[in-house]
Amino acid sequence: MNEELDFVKEMFDKIAPKYDFLNRLLSMRQDVMWRREMVRAANLGRGAQVLDVACGTCDVGLEISKTLHHKTTVTGLDFSLGMLRLGQAKLSRKQNTTIDLVNGDALHLPVKHNLFDGVFIAFGIRNIMNREGALREFQRTLKPGGRAVVLELTTPESGIFRKIYLGYFQKILPLIGSFFSKHDNAYAYLPESVLKFPDARTFCRLMAAAGLTDIRYKQMTLGIVTLFVGTKPPQ
Question: What whole-number distance in Å separates Cα of residue 142 and Cα of residue 109?
Fold first, then answer.
């Protein structure tokens, strides 16, 4: 387990310099729309306190700040120091002072109970082996009535598009990714991790087991991405 965690951490450290570029290229800029939809789905008011887990280079945090304006405070957390360094540089360029970055583990969030109005994780939950444990941590740190919002790459369930997508995802995408990132394993790991991710109904059951309620999901772009939302029950 620790070896796999170390591999993922090292991989993200190495691909960090090309991460934003490859996200835009490989998704044909759909990742921008997906994050925008994610922030809207949380339905948070101005002044919300938000945690962005596996924050990477802060794209989600910046979208939150843009949508909810400057009265919102965002804490971005990631286990990759390489990602955090690039995220901090991006925040400095944009003169954003509403996002604080923390190096940490999604399974042991270094924050108090009942603190956040929203906990977000985009394209990160599939890299966590103990997904229910992470979801329990999200639930713990949410205020009663707060929302956990998960955006993840998924596999289209059926039809001709599934065959086309799998051909691109398993054969073409790893070649493009390794060419630009200069990391041979990272974009071979990506399709493997997505194919292992549970289907939407199974993941919703994990969210419920972690103590979240009012769970719903939305498949986007013909099912290659799924958005999940769950709420911490009122106490």
Answer: 12
